[in-house]
Each structure stands twice: as C-alpha cells, then as structure tokens.
C-alpha cells in the first residue's frame, strides 16, 4: 500500500471537526505530511496552522493559494521555504475590518512588511492576487513591482489602502497584462498615470468595477491604451455617463466591455459600438435601466457581437430584441429581463433560429 499523500491527509483533516481530535491527527501525521510535501508543486490551503510543517517541506512549490487570514510570521515562512513561487493567490474570502483590535481578530493579517519579505525572496512571481487584503498598501505593492519585473497579473481589488501614487509606478510596468482594481480608491489622476505610462502598450485587461471616484477625465485617458481588449466599469457610480463612454469608442481593440449598473449611461454608449467604431464581441449592459429601444436597436447589424446581457433593462420591447437578434449574424447569447415592455412571445421561449444559427435567450 502506498503512503498517504498531502491531498489525502488534508481531506481527512477537513473531515475532523473536534479541535482536540484535529490536534491529535496533526501530531500523528506530521512526519507523513512532511514526506508527502517534498514534491508538492501547488498548494491550496484553508488551514494556516498546517503551514509551519507544510511550507518548510515544499521547496519545489510554484503556486500557493490561501484565502484565510495570514500573519507576517507565515509570510516570512513562505519566503524562506518557497523561493521558486510563480503564482501567489492570497485573495481573501472574508471581510477584514482594519479598525478592529488585534484581540478581536486574533493575530493581524499580513501588511506591507510581510508582503515585502515574500516578493524580495520570490522575484520570479508572475501572477499575484492580493484582493481584500486591507493592510496592504503602496509600499508593499511597490516592492512587488520593483522585485518581480515579469509580473503579468495583479489583482488589488478591495485593497483600500493604496493611493494614486502607486498607480504612477504601476503605469511604468512593461510586463502587466491583466490588472484588477475593483473597489480601489483610484481617481482620474491614477487612471492618467496608468494610461500615459509604459503600461499603455502592454495592458490587455483592466477591471475597475465599483471604482466610483473616476469620471470623464480618467475615462478619456484610457483612449491611449493600445492593446486593451477587456474593460470592466460596472457599478462605477453616477460620474460615468454616455459622454464618458463615448470617449472609449476610439479603442478599436476592445473585445469585452462590461458597463453593467451604470445607471446614467446607456444609449449613446451603445450606439457607438457599431461597425463604424469599436466592435466588441461581448457587451454587458445589465442594470443600465435608462437603455431604450433606440439604444438597443443601435446594435443591429453588429458584425462581431456574440454575447449581449440586458438583465434589468426594462425599457426595451420584444420587437426590438427580435430585430437585433435577426440582424447580428454572430450573436449566440442574449440575456433579457422578464419585465421588458412586451413579454416573451410564449412560455419557455429560449431559442431563436436566424441565419442558420441558433441563439440562446436567457430570461431572468
């Protein structure tokens, strides 16, 4: 019989709910665990207490993922034990309140000091997710960018401590391909730093959902992004209107655009996504409640449109939907609200056949 591996031991540990039983199992299997981790390449762990034995035994690890609170002590251990890391996924599931006292949270979540130790030791990091880590600020992320010059993916969503000064450094990157800033305090100035630096020639995906401090000047600066294919601006507040979205029409490279829940942007933005300007294949306008029949019909004859989401857009009619579906030869999916002006023609109608292709219609 072969010895138990790391995955099997972790599954057993996960099934034990009694704290004392867990401790006993941990002590009994500690030596087996160390041996099992020698060849471990990837680790997704939900029990940080195991790290003090797992990490020192995992010198070949290239991907580490943990969505629980981690102290600076564990970050230092990670830095000492796993210098070959390429992929660091530390996006956290729970909401951390930076104002809570240490005795309420247990040991503090890691901060810039802990992050700096890791990135200085693991300079070949290619992908890093720090979403929701509230104690991470400009200093830690700046150290990451300076040490890991091949960084291609960076997720800072929910990192409320970062400022526009950091975006000046991010804008200088030659390597970033995918940047997530959801819920960050980025302003128009920060966006200008991003759009005017080296990053404008390499960034392909920019996700800025729930960034409600940006407005016309910041959005207009994105016109300088030469390789941008994927842009997410959902839930960015009332400062983004049709005139701001109109400024994006000159970005010919856009393939995916998410404008969902921009309550003051609808008709002009959609009318400038036709064949005369940008031609995205995926458009999400869910929650844009001011979208009218005029705006929807502007998508007719769109040459590349494959996916169109109109959930919670109630001011359009089934007749307009049919017109768009029948004229967009590439369309394969459209999402609709059951509260549109004219109800769907018959119960359960969820497929449409045009130009020798089926279109899926999803109602919600």
TrEMBL record:
Residues 110-248 form the F-box/LRR-repeat protein 15-like leucin rich repeat domain. InterPro entries: FBXL15_LRR, Leu-rich_rpt_Cys-con_subtyp, LRR_dom_sf. It comes from Artemisia annua. SUPFAM superfamilies: RNI-like. Transmembrane segments: none annotated. This is Leucine-rich repeat, cysteine-containing subtype. One of its GO terms (cellular component) is SCF ubiquitin ligase complex. It holds the Pfam family DUF7885. Signal peptide: none annotated. GO terms for biological process: SCF-dependent proteasomal ubiquitin-dependent protein catabolic process.
